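TL;DR need structure tokens for one chain.
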Amino acid sequence: MSHNEQNKKSGLTEDQIKKLNGLSESEVKEKILKDGYNELPSSKKKGIFHIIFEVMKEPMFLLLVACGILYCVIGDIQEAIMLLGFVGVIIGITVYQEGKTEKALDALKDLSSPRALVIRDGERKRIPGREVVKGDYIILAEGDRVPADGVLLWGMNLSVDESLLTGESIAVNKNSGNENIEMERPGGDETPFIYSGTLIVSGQGVALIKKTGMETEMGRIGKALQSLEEEKTILEKETGVIFKTVFIIAVILCLVVVVVYGFTKGNTLDTWLHGILSGITLAMAMLPEEFPVVLTVFLALGAWRISKKNVLTRKVKAVETLGAATVLCVDKTGTLTQNRMSIHTLYANGSFYKVADNRNEALPENFHCLVEYGVLASKKDPFDPMEKALKSLGENKLNGTEHIHDDWVLAHEYPLSRELLALSHVWMSPDGNNYCVAAKGAPEAIADLCHFTEDQTKELEINIQKMAKEGLRVLGVAKSSCKLDKDLPEGQHDFDFEFLGLLGLADPIRESVPSAVAESYKAGIRVVMITGDYPATACNIARQIGFKNHDMFITGQELTTLSDDELRLKIKEVNIFARVVPEQKLRIVNVFKENGEIVSMTGDGVNDAPALKSAHIGIAMGERGTDVAREASSLVLLDDDFSSIVSAVRMGRRIFDNLRKAMAYIISVHIPIAGMSLLPVLLQWKEMILFPVHIVFLELIIDPACSVVFESEKEERNTMERPPRTRNERLFNRKTLILSVLQGFISLLFVFGVFRIALYLGQSTAEARTLSFITLIISNLSLILTNRSWTENMFTTLKSKNSAFPWVVGGALLFLVLVVYVPFMQNLFHFSSMHIADVLIGVGA
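>> reply
TL;DR here they are.
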């Protein structure tokens, strides 16, 4: 089929599309209430009974139940009832933690929904894909993931990858066959159809949504997606190994305690029962069952906190890796700059014209044709900032002249390709006799289309450099024509183009970028700019934002000539890559990785996906990025601002620091508890110091402390003043482990010392137990305070704000008062009936 025949079957025209109003917001709300959101059923939320069942499978719960049964056998019903009561409290805490985590994950799920560009109330609006409803008009472009099933109203060079549904790897052409489609309500032969989950490989189009959610073709196979589980992160694997190791040690020591207690205390049934009780108490004291809870809470809430910095976490492992990033590779346009283009300079017929300096003057005739064909090479209703700037200039400077062609009809479009960085629009003139062709793109591509001689190319390069040194983005414009009775050629090279001139577009830097770059350097992180612009333009921007080595660069052409070994050496000093095509990003990422760097890479297009996936931290653009780029990335930059990346790195460092503190606290706090459970057996004392009820009481402090208090802790003072940690650095490195164990043994020494001194001074075992338990609680709270900050002293840390810390301390002290002073609680905790003041006076005496 010829291009002419295809164009006659292209459905709606761009003018008709522009007149589409779409649904109103009230209609959308009604449809969502009726049909629900456009999403597949996700894995079911954990209900209360499901959470209770999960708690019942936990080792700590099983140990508590075993203790309760033992107390029933021994005849201590009160103790058994109290332990079972504590089970209810633990379940309550678990439900609260799960609820908090679920809310954070739900918020992230809403953000991570694929985006869709729809027409509503006559305006284009980008929304989450889950909010698409039947009757929505959606605008499709290369790299988009189709959000729902619909019928194509208009398409231009549109091809779709439907392999997700059909298994067929060849893209399906969707341009022909829709001559029966009506504008308002498709009828008759509703082909071509587009399907939810498929990928737009090339071209553009407009579709009317017919099916959403479970009604779509994807919905039929959606249940299979619920069974997919993400691979465990490095931290999950590390903590899992530690938990299993400690669990095995706890079981072995538990058996040792039972055997030693049984054979050294008389070898009777009652002795063996008490021995089993001692062994279970020790196992409860040693078991760091908080590890998985803390990890889940920290990573989920950490991802939620990062989203508050306008960075969406799509893969949890990115939260771990952020703090280790050593190189931030970023695009220039829209990330370092505002992506708010304006035409600054024009070049045509050997002369320059500064638009920025002559805003109130009429455009000289010499530049009319250049602007005219620049507008014709753009969309009538542009979305791209460059095309918006061109249209604005045309409306302001050429309005009312013969150079504005609102009545012309777009007949065909030759899209930008990796082989030729230029596009062409073929217009049908009102006289119906000729095609008028307008092309714009990279100056060297336009020069190629115009078949420039060597001298012409050299002259063009000189003029390009003049504009690029001012930090301008440079585009070339050309024109051509052909007779209407001829078939359009297959490619742009088959036209006879005439060069018209150059457009220089200014894109101011974001105000927040220079300080963010300076902060990155302070944190030991390199910032690398990768752009398709000319080196002079890139260097100018780099100088403005404070880049190191802003006059050194590597071009895309150089990349093709450098060997990997040469590039590995050169890349250590160079921070600017100019005239780079997206496919070369992958090589840059891989070379940085070979040099031992932890690399983050930004991208927005389909061709950026391999580099995003290869980078340790792939960052897709949320505002202008394609769904393919989003799916390949670990993070999505919701506002496309570089400073948000730096904020996320800061937050990533804070999360890892606080997670390490929480884990260190868990290890240290279990040492005195385990020690006071094990020592009486090894020293063959007559009575136990700690009973299961004491362990449970301590767990009620430890659980919220390690998950809520440490998660809420502010960042360390030197968070962004130290080099990145190595990616392979373990959560429990030697320093952390030694510090934790040392803290734990110091705490054990104090608690054990208080107990022995109390006995030495004539106090009863119950009185000594009371005093040592109070010491243990105070020691526990001190460990929380000590580990809240590893760079500040205790008094400074105490003054710093942490909303959860006062509640944990207040709750612990309140319960301590109750168990010490209330007779019923004293009895349950095996404390002395005398007041603690009397005990302290006795010890002092």
